[in-house]
């Protein structure tokens, strides 16, 4: 990280992206360096045109840094807040992808949009030294939706998986049964679909060389379902809601503080 904390005012460097903990620390460090430089330049009795330009750029950069840092902090707080209302989380592999006429198209699109270098840009020598399987492509997408199929002749609880509006398979039967009642406007679905498998390279000790193995692609989904409390009205529905919260707390989905607050409201309602 030390390679990135150095800061100097640059007319063309206007943005300071903060999207994870590492970049947050980097920009925070750059902000401190910028403030120190600003203080040093402000102490100059006679400010040349160059110094004034530097101060102007530093002021611009400090505002941009503060905005990016504040936005990230707000996003984290919002994420932590929303985490309390998650009633279901699960990881699973999409079933039936080999029967989907759109699967190969979806795989190609995911690779084009999110995969950068084949085999992680590694040479055969590097793959040999690594000793593990290095897959040709990895990728992900957040553009998915789940859709119930109550008229499905094989399973009334069937839930189809769509990526970019293309049907690619189904939620596993046991999970579909668990979340069927959560696929309505009251609940909000979020998550990520990861491209897994596919061709890979590895060092074959028996042949003393790196070999490529053909392998089918698959899709792994990580989903979270959050309760938005929409259309909750009436004593019976509220009691059902509180019971769901109590169940979710026991499963580790809610904080103790939130749980105790909800149980207090439940007791007042009773």
Question: Could you explain how this protein is built, in words?
Answer:
The protein has 270 residues and is α+β, with helices and mostly antiparallel strands. It contains seven helices and ten strands. It folds into three domains: 63 residues; 146 residues, no CATH class; 39 residues, no CATH class. The strands form three sheets. It has a four-stranded antiparallel β-sheet with strand order 1-10-7-3. Strands 2-8-9 form a three-stranded antiparallel β-sheet, with helices on one face. Strands 4-5-6 form a three-stranded antiparallel β-sheet, with no helix packed on it. Strand 8 and strand 9 form a beta hairpin. The chain starts with 20 loop residues before the first helix and ends with a helix.
């Amino acid at each position: 990280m030390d390679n990135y904390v150095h800061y100097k005012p640059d007319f063309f460097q206007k943005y300071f992206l903060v999207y994870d903990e590492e970049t947050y620390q980097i920009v925070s460090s750059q902000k401190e360096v910028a403030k120190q430089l600003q203080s040093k330049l402000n102490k100059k009795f006679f400010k040349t045109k160059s110094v004034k330009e530097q101060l102007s750029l530093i002021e611009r950069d400090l505002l941009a840094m503060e905005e990016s840092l504040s936005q990230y902090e707000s996003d984290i707080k919002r994420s932590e807040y929303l985490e309390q209302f998650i009633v279901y989380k699960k990881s699973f592999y999409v079933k039936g992808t080999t029967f989907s006429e759109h699967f190969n198209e979806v795989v190609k699109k995911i690779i084009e949009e999110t995969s950068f270098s084949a085999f992680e840009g590694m040479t055969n020598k590097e793959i040999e030294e690594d000793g593990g399987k290095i897959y040709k492509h990895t990728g992900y997408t957040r553009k998915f939706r789940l859709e119930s199929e109550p008229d499905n002749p094989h399973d009334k609880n069937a839930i189809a998986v769509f990526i970019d509006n293309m049907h690619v398979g189904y939620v596993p039967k046991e999970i579909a049964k668990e979340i069927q009642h959560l696929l309505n406007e009251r609940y909000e679905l979020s998550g990520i679909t990861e491209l897994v498998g596919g061709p890979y390279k590895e060092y074959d000790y028996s042949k003393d060389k790196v070999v490529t193995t053909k392998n089918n692609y698959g899709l792994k989904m990580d989903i979270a379902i959050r309760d938005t409390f929409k259309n909750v009205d009436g004593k019976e529905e509220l009691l059902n809601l509180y019971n769901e919260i109590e169940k979710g707390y026991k499963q580790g989905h809610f904080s103790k503080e939130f749980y105790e607050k909800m149980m207090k409201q439940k007791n007042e309602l009773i």
